[in-house]
Amino acid sequence: MFASKRLSKELQKLQGTLPPGISLISAENFEEWLMDIKVMDDNPLYRNEVYRLRFRFGSSYPIEAPEVTFVQDPSHPIPMHPHVYSNGIICLDLLDTSGWSPVQNVESVCVSLQSMLTGNSKNERPPGNDAFVRTNRQRPRDINFVFHDNKV
Amino acid sequence: MDSEDEVISVASSEEMMEDQDSDLSMGGDYSDVDLDVDDPDVGFETQDKDIKPKRRPYEVEFNIYGPADIQSHQDQQIDEVSAILGQPPEATAILLRHTRWNKERLIEIYMDKQDTLLEEAGLGKSLAKLPELKKVKGFVCEICCEDGPDLKTFSMKCGHRFCLDCYRQYLAQKIQEEGEAARIKCPGDGCNKIVDSKSLDLLVTEDLKDRYQVLLTRTYVDDKENLKWCPAPNCEYAVDCRVKQRDLNKTVPTVHCTCGHHFCFGCTLNDHQPAPCSLVKKWLKKCEDDSETANWISANTKECPKCHSTIEKNGGCNHMTCRKCKHEFCWMCMGVWSEHGTSWYNCNRFEEKSGSEARDAQAKSRQSLERYLHYYNRYANHEQSAKLDKDIYLKTEKKMTQLQSSSGMSWIEVQFLDAASQALQQCRQTLKWTYAFAYYLARNNLTEIFEDNQKDLELAVENLSEMFEKPTDQLSGLKVEMMDKTAYCTRRRIILLSDTAENLKNGGAHSLRLRPGSFD
Ligand SMILES: [Zn+2]
Ligand SMILES: [Zn+2]
Ligand SMILES: [Zn+2]
Ligand SMILES: [Zn+2]
Ligand SMILES: [Zn+2]
Ligand SMILES: [Zn+2]
C-alpha cells in the first residue's frame, strides 16, 4: 500500500477529537472504514437521523480519491439529496478525478458531505435516479458522472 | 423550449417529391452521382464518370489525418508563430498549447501582456532559473505524511510543497490513468496552477516520457474545434470537419475514417443518419430509462399468429414462414406478409387512434406507450436483424470458398455477397435511426413522404435479406438478382437520406416538424 503511514496518521486523528456530528465507527484495516455523519442544525430533511458512510481505499489512495458511498441498514437511511442516489452512490465532483486533491482526507470528505446535506432544502433524488439504480452495476469510480450543478 | 413551431428543417422541393418514385434513376439532383457499386452490370447511369461526383445532400466535407499529418500541422503552426513572436520553437509550442492552439488569441495576448502570459505558461523570468528539488527542514508531506531531513520535495510558485515521490505518483496517475498532459493542476486542494512543462521535464520519470509526449501531441486535436479523433478502438486517425456545433439540428455530419469506421462528427457516436444528434441523445436516454418496459419486445422468439407454435428468428429477414403451418407473416407487426409490399402495407407507420378512443388520461398514457413501443420495436429489430444478417453472412463467407470451387467462379466474382452484406448492414443502420427520428416527428404530409421512403427502403432491405437465407448451392444462380437488389437498396437509402437531409437543411413553408418538446 502506497500510504500506510498516511492512513495510520488519519486514523490516529479520527480516534481523537472530531468535528461535531462526525464519528468513526470502524477501521479494522486500511481497505474499508465506516464513518457516521449527522446534520447539526434542524434541517427537517435530516432531523434525528444518522447516516453511515463507507470509505474504500484503493492501492493508490490518497493520489486517487477513496470510494465513498452511503450505506443503508435498519437504523441508517440514505439521505434525500439531489446528488445522492437511493442506492447510496454520491455524485459529487469532490470525489471525482477532476475535483479530488490528494490533500483531502477522510475527515475533510465527511465535513464536505455533512455541509452538502446541511445546505440542502430539496427533498429529491438526482434526475434519472430510478433507472440509474435499476441498471447501474458499475463501481462509483468507474461512472462518468455529468455533474448536474456544483452549487448544491 | 416551446417547440410547437420549431422547424428543424424543411421541405423537399415540389419537384423532388414528384420525381421520387418516377423511376429508378434517382431523379433530378442525384442522377449524376456515382454509386458505391462499381460493377457495370448493375445497370444504372454512371455516365458522368469523369466528372468528380457531386456531394449528396447528406454528405459533408471532411479530411482524415494520420499521426504524421497531425505532427506536421503542429510543426507548421509552431514555425509560423515562432517567426511572428520571435520565440524559439520549443517555447512557442508551450505557448500554443497554453492558449489551446488559438494562434490569433496567442498573438494578441502576447502583444498585450507578454510578461503575464509567459509567467502563466511557465516561461516567465522567475522561471529563468530551472525548477529544482529541495530538502526542507521540518517538512511533513501533506499527502503521504512522510518527513525527515533527507526527503526531496518540490513545489511550483503557488507554494504547495509535496515530497518528490508523491508528486511523481500524482503525475503518473494523471498521465497514465487519466490521460492528461498539457493541463495537469497542482495537487494542492483547489489550486488551479497548471504544472508547467519545465517542472514536468524535471518530475516525469523516463518510463512516462513517451506517453507524455504522445498525450501532448494529442492535445492539438483535442483543442481544435474542427478536429476529432476517430473513436474506433486503437485508431490513430483524426478527422477534420468544418460543421459547427450550432448547425447540428440542420445537418448530420457522418464521416468515414480510413480505418473503416463510420461515425458522426457531431457526437462521435456510430453513424446515425438521418436522425440529428440531439434526437439521438434523447432517444438513447429514453430507451435506457424505459428499458424494462421495452425489453420484452426484442425477444428472439415469438408465436406464429396462426398456429401459435414457437418460432425462433435466426436470420435478419422479417418475412417469416411458420415451419408447421406455412403461414407467412411479418416479424415486426405480426401481420400477414402478403399485405406487405402492396398499398396495404402499413408496417412502418404508427396509426394514432381517433380522438374519441384516447380521451381519458389512462387511454392517453397507454397510447403514448404504444406509440413509443411501435418505434422502439422497429428500431431494436433492425439493430438485431443487422447482427443476424451479419451472422448469416459470416457463415456464407465460409461457403463462398465452396462456391468458388463448385461453380468455377473466381474470388472477384463471389464478391457480390460481400457487397450485399455491407449494403444490408448500412441500410439497417439507417432504418434503425429513421424509427428513432420518426418518433419525434409531428404528422404532416412530409412525414408521410419520409415514411414512404422508409417503407420503400425497408421493403428493399427485407427482399435482399431474404436472399441470404437461401441455400449456398443456389447462390451462384442468384448473382445477378442479388446485385440488382443490392443496388436497389443502396439507391433507396440514398434517396431517403437525400430527401431528409434537404428537408433538414432548407426550412420554410413545407417542413418536417418535430412534435412539441422534442428539442427540450
Ligand atoms: Zn509525500
Ligand atoms: Zn498549488
Ligand atoms: Zn478510425
Ligand atoms: Zn451525432
Ligand atoms: Zn404456424
Ligand atoms: Zn409488418
TrEMBL record, chain A:
Stored Pfam families: UQ_con
Ranges for domain UBC core: 2-152
Chaperone recorded as keyword: no
Keywords for this protein: Ubl conjugation pathway
Keyword NAD set for record: no
Domain of life: Eukaryota
Protein name, per record: UBC-like protein
TrEMBL record, chain B:
SUPFAM superfamilies attached to this UniProt entry: RING/U-box
Top-level taxon of the source organism: Eukaryota
BP GO annotations: protein ubiquitination
Key words of the record: Metal-binding, Repeat, Transferase, Ubl conjugation pathway, Zinc, Zinc-finger
Known EC number: 2.3.2.31
Gene3D superfamilies associated with the record: 1.20.120.1750, Zinc/RING finger domain, C3HC4 (zinc finger) (3.30.40.10)
Domain RING-type span(s) in chain numbering: 137-351, 141-189
PROSITE patterns: TRIAD, ZF_RING_1, ZF_RING_2
UniProt biased composition (Acidic residues): 31-42
SMART domains cross-referenced by the UniProt entry: IBR, RING
Start and end residues of each stretch annotated as Disordered: 1-48
Protein's UniProt keywords contain Ligase: no
InterPro entries: Ariadne, ARIH1-like_UBL, E3_UB_ligase_RBR, IBR_dom, TRIAD_supradom, Znf_C3HC4_RING-type, Znf_RING, Znf_RING/FYVE/PHD
Catalytic activity: [E2 ubiquitin-conjugating enzyme]-S-ubiquitinyl-L-cysteine + [acceptor protein]-L-lysine = [E2 ubiquitin-conjugating enzyme]-L-cysteine + [acceptor protein]-N(6)-ubiquitinyl-L-lysine
GO terms of molecular function: ubiquitin protein ligase activity; zinc ion binding
Protein name: RBR-type E3 ubiquitin transferase
Species of the source: Viridothelium virens
